[in-house]
Write a structure and sequence with these properties.
Radius of gyration: 29 Å
Number of strands: 5
Low-confidence stretches: none
Structural class: alpha+beta
Mean pLDDT: 90
Number of domains: 2
Order of helices and strands: HHHEEEEE
Length: 157
Amino acid sequence: MNDFSVFIDIVENWAWIGWLVLIALFLVIEMLTLDFTFLMLSFGSAIGLVGDLIGLPAWAQIIIAAVAAAAFILLLRPPLLRRLHRGEDPTKSNVEALVGLRGIALQDITQISGQAKLSNGDTWTARTATSMPIPQGSPVAVLAINGATATVRPVNE
């Protein structure tokens, strides 16, 4: 017997340990990522383990595990993700909720400085998105929030 056939025999005899290690590794990574991708890979590895337990050669186990993992990722993962995100609140919150909000310029707003009071009662440091200054008392709308500064535009009502 040559060295290669001895290696193949060792792999054939101990492949189940490799499959168990892969399953455990993928499950640990899944616990850290929570994305269902590594869970599907661990399912594929479990199929590879079943292939080893029924006596398939190592090359067949690997092919079956890869095909099963791909099928799980393509067919099982999307509905699981939809079901997981089904109960999410679609309402915007925090800074996202401020974009589009209207307000009044408390001082002249330029590209450098200014202040606006938004309709939710908050007063923000403001900058204009255009080169034209916005005069005090003019209605404005929030385009974006950058740190503690609102980028606003004039509103023509």
